[in-house]
Design brief:
It is built from 14 helices and no strands. With about 290 residues, it is an all-alpha fold. The chain has two domains: about 10-120, Four Helix Bundle (Hemerythrin (Met), subunit A) (Up-down Bundle); about 130-175 and about 200-285, Arc Repressor Mutant, subunit A, CATH 1.10.10.10.
Length: about 290
Amino acid sequence: MTPTLALPTISAVGSIDAYIQAARQFPLLTEEQEFGLATRFREQSDLGAARQLVLSHLRLVISVSRGYLGYGLPHADLIQEGNIGLMKAVKRFDPGRGVRLVSFAIHWIKAEIHEYVLKNWRMVKLATTKAQRKLFFNLRSMKASRDALGPLQVADIAHRLSVKPQEVLEMDTRLTGHDMAFDAQTEDDEAFAPAAYLADNSSEPVHILEARARERLHNEGLRNALGNLDPRSRRIVEARWLSDENPATLHDLAAEFAVSAERIRQIEVKAMQKMRANLAPLAAST
């Protein structure tokens, strides 16, 4: 179906703005119209009906693709990949299930864009498992700022996404890294590149002292937050998220305390909530 459908492309209309305007010209379908077109395509292989279904949902692809602009990839390419997902959705759509195409298509659109981002975004080689992919696409939105993550933030995100703390740190390093040419290839006097500022300001004594002070403050805050926990809760948090080697599993701690794994999970959740509350004033002041 894909090579046969004649659809508007960004290169054909001249610019992405013109493409967006063109996509908005195609009317949305009523539920009855959508059902009729989907039935014609499914039962009669009517490509004209399939084309109408795709055209009426181009604006959905544009909307979804905007959520992936932060990865530095061309918007036009994101839209193109999303359109492929849309066409796959139309091909597999069953109108008899009582679900609108818009709900069914979002999964396919996002799946194609996800694959494109993972294959083409600079530096990303880590996101190969399902958990790592979830981490890749959620870490940016879960961070409170663009600064490096602190130990408690790492532990909290790792817990919420069911990955290892080290994986959170590695992915955060990849996401906050930036590619830049060593020598700027431009005559613009305002442009800058590493070659123009080789001095490492972080080595200046004042910056070193400030960094040490911040680190000491955060470490003291973490110790105080742990100190406000009862012994069992503190043991669970330290064993699960602050251990340098082989973090304990829920079942390991369940055996240690002679309770269920679910009970350990509940204690852990409450402990993390209490620690976040204790650290909130510190986070606001730094």
